[in-house]
Amino acid sequence: MHLSVSEESYLFTYLSSVPPTRSDGRQPSAFRPLDTTSSFLPSANGSARVRTSDGSECIVAIKADVIKIGTPKADQNIEISSSVASEFGTTGSQDEPLPSFLTTSIHSALQNSLILERLKLTSRYSYKLYIDGVILSHSAHPLSLLSMAVYLALLDTMLPKLISNADDSGDNSAEDLPQFSDDWLDSYPLCPFNERGNYYEWSPPLILLAVIVGKNVFVDSTAEEERVSQGGVLVCWTEDIISSVKTINSISNTKQRRALKVASIKNAVDLLSSVYVEVKTALEKASRV
């Protein structure tokens, strides 16, 4: 997004003031309304779509495949690809900066948090998840948008029930493939929900972004806010615990900026932590509608 020098100066003045004034009137910790949909792709094991009020939209589909443990294909139980649509077409090459960054960030968070026992079928076979994300439109940095869509899609993921013997360690079953129920009603969730305790027994990681303008921090930033920001802070939660914190340059800000101050990073982490539970709770409620 192109802004004139006077427009940038105007925005920076109002966003860095105390208290700050956002162009849409939101508080620094306020998210824009989200429209979410799950289970809309019948051929996928799990799917989700997330749209924001500015027209940003992301779709995620998850497919599960059976792999043999001990083969090169089984080195990792998750494979992720992401593509970003733009006015010039869809960018999906993992050699390009933005898709590569999105894929690496989500993959790293999931690989470090997924309980592999949830994917294990027998002593010889396991499930492998293929996660495909498409950013259909975006103005600001799309990582939080993609992370929320992946979060919902994983909560939506159902896996076929194994009906053959789970103990295939004997020689007679060495070449036997796992057999599954044909009835989709017998499938089980990757993320079981404990009705009695009202919580998920395992919930996916979630990544949120905040941008820093002056001494102020803003969540769910607009493209204009990113344009005048000094940079952003990404925080990843795994099982409600912060697992990583990273600083990034805004995708809509091409100017070289100074390194973020430690105090500003801490303020960003504190603000994101204050809204994390609210965002997670809203996503989980949406997945059960």
Give a structural overview.
This protein is an alpha+beta fold and 289 residues long. The chain has one domain (18-166, 177-287): Ribosomal Protein S5, domain 2, CATH 3.30.230. 25% of the residues lie in helices and 29% in strands. The chain contains five helices and 14 strands. It has helices at 5-16, 97-111, 143-156, 223-227, 262-287, and strands spanning 34-38, 46-52, 57-68, 78-86, 89-91, 125-137, 158-159, 188-189, 193-194, 199-200, 206-213, 216-219, 231-238, 241-248. The strands form four sheets. The protein has a six-stranded mixed sheet with strand order 1-2-3-6-4-5, covered by helices on one side. Strands 12-11-13-14 form a four-stranded antiparallel sheet, with helices on both faces. A two-stranded antiparallel sheet has the order 7-8. Helix 3 (143-156) runs parallel beside helix 5. It is elongated, with a radius of gyration of 21 Å. 36% of the residues are buried.
Q: Helix share of residues?
A: 10-25%
Indicate the radius of gyration in whole angstroms: 21 Å
| CATH class type | Alpha Beta
Q: Identify the overall geometry.
A: elongated
Mean pLDDT: 87
List low-pLDDT spans. none
Q: What structural class do you assign from the helix and strand content?
A: alpha+beta
CATH superfamily label:
GHMP Kinase, N-terminal domain
Order of helices and strands: HEEEEEHEHEEEEEEHEEH
Main pleated sheet: 6 strands, mixed
